[in-house]
Automatic annotation (TrEMBL):
Superkingdom, taxonomy of origin: Eukaryota
Keyword Cell membrane assigned: no
InterPro entries associated with the record: AceGlu_kinase-like_sf (IPR036393), Ald_DH/histidinol_DH (IPR016161), Ald_DH_C (IPR016163), Ald_DH_N (IPR016162), Aldehyde_DH_dom (IPR015590), Asp/Glu/Uridylate_kinase (IPR001048), G-glutamylP_reductase_CS (IPR020593), G5K_ProBA (IPR041744)
Protein name, entry field: Delta-1-pyrroline-5-carboxylate synthase
Record's GO cellular component terms: mitochondrial matrix
Amino acid sequence: IRCWSNIPFITVPLSRAHGKSFAHRSELKHAKRIVVKLGSAVVTRGDECGLALGRLASIVEQVSMLQNQGREMMIVTSGAVAFGKQRLRHEILLSQSVRQALHSGQSQLKDMAIPVLEARACAAAGQSGLMALYEAMFTQYSICAAQILVTNLDFHDEQKRRNLNGTLHELLRMNIVPIINTNDAVVPPPEPNSDLQGVNVISVKDNDSLAARLAVEMKTDLLIVLSDVEGLFDSPPGSDDAKLIDIFYPGDQQSVTFGTKSRVGMGGMEAKVKAALWALQGGTSVVIANGTHPKISGHVITDIVEGKKVGTFFSEVKPAGPTVEQQAEMARAGGRTLAALQPEQRAEIIYRLADLLTDQREDILLANKKDLEEAENKGRLALPLLKRLSLSTSKLNSLAIGLRQIAASSQDSVGRVIRRTRIAKDLDLEQVTVPIGVLLVIFESRPDCLPQVSALAIASGNGLLLKGGKEAAHSNQILHHLTQEALSIHGVRDAVQLVNTREEVEDLCRLDKLIDLIIPRGSSQLVRNIQKAAKGIPVMGHSEGICHVYVDTDASVEKVTRIIRDSKCEYPAACNALETLLIHRDLLRTPLFDQIIDMLRVEQVKIHAGPKFASYLTFSPSEVKSLRTEYGDLECCIEVVDSVQEAIEHIHKYGSSHTDVIITENEKTAEFFLQHVDSACVFWNASTRFSDGYRFGLGAEVGISTSRIHARGPVGIEGLLTTKWLLRGDNHVVSDFSEHGSMKYLHESLPLPQRNAS
């Protein structure tokens, strides 16, 4: 517990020996001492006269939040010149207007020219006001701020350096935020050739170099440089091919072309990079990011400290493999080559993968055993997830069978003509199937998902990025290696990529220019998190699998217990397992109802009573907390309904549009249920567990979709395809079809080409 102004707060445990910079973004959350450098473009308004108050308030709020977590925050700020310019302009205009009014004796004023204001005078006029503003803002969070003005000479004089160092340490010890600025009122003009002069010397000629020098002097863990661009680009921002550099390594500056400096301030991006590299050599991690963008400036600092992919991170540790952006580009290029192969060649790759799953069975199971042992030793996985993680000979055999089904059914998936229209004479239009592009599949605990999804991506000609959970790292590694071995027979090894970097799922979901579709495979929480994080990328899947079985008055005694047992107990962790059992009121206190309860007790299923069911019982099981619960275990809810119509209404209100079942011998009632329940899968007298791509004959599935656009239910090859239009003409132009043109639209439907019977 730390206190200030008699207000206690909990601190974050932060400790780190200074000397080496952080190697990965994910380590930034351990930063204890942080310098935030605010560029002139961040602090000032667009008219360069006055401060951007809203933006500044947001930055102060974020710095205060981190300070209150127990971190030691320092700010290197610009803005004194802009604030002073605003004040001096106001004074000059006021003075001129008074003189002109006295001279002319008239109230009407002529246009007045404002003289060019000298920067040092502006700084002198603006420093006190800028500091007063910071003090007022920090006071709102019960934090004290202190101003320190420095010049280049203060770092060259050993005694002044020690004094500065001591002052800053004492302020930090007292939980005060130091606000540092170059003393622009007295600082000499920058010398053109006095920039970086080695590891131990840096000329303080702007706030970038000041921030770097200060960060190293104070053994700071992290330097955040906020500017008016997203970070460092490989070419000037705004140019057609400019790409944001996620991680910048020393030596990479040769591959970067710098543009002009910002609209205000003394530094440019080149100065920022030089200062950042100098700080990095001194053991301080650096991130350059945008502090002006209205959508991100409100949380840019906290996002960086949390390790999110914001701006450009400077690191001395270069990863052995490609970045995730490079992997996505490789997957796109590989996917396009894959789509251009003959159908027989894609099928051949999948057949080869199926053979490898059985031929390399022992190596796969050995790798899986390592994952299981590590998970059990760490105790981080619940029993249902351990079951999902486990592979066996029978599972691998089933996988191989499913893959061969995919290969056999994929012969005419890509490039299939689904519509032909004769627009006019010699002008024919075709709609054909094509791959979606690059898929990102994120999955938890289930290594068997990797070959399934890979086979479907191969069959549909899509590039694929796979992000598996850490708990299945060894299994995923060998399965991906075998997938790439199979792809190599036709030279498309790069089409399927496994992301092994420390990439956070939220960061992957931001790659909207590289990924076309995200498919989550895992818990409802994972799916919800991805749907929330995905910015501009469609997400295919379901957040919950709240599946219902409705037992009608005309249900068969023999069928009821079999279907319910299979739906709930065969694999309770599956998304297509029964979660809510709806029973017609007339079946209460009948032998059939007793059989259902006895069977659930024998199977050790914990029963939760719905509100209506509980009202019929003297001693009821625990009443359900929510009728929208996915248990994922040997638990279920029982609720009573008065009719098939009420059952449908209950499903629509509390279900997740996944899979719902009716058990009845009344065909009319069954058809009414099938037609009116608005779910992806609706069954009559069959287990919910049939909702599966393999059981549907799709070979496998990338997931079960409950969305209403594109694909719904178990998603196989067809769900991974979209279409494009091909128009073949002969010197056709639209003007020929005008009122007085020579051609007329026909719009005749043409027969489709025969599909491959095999």
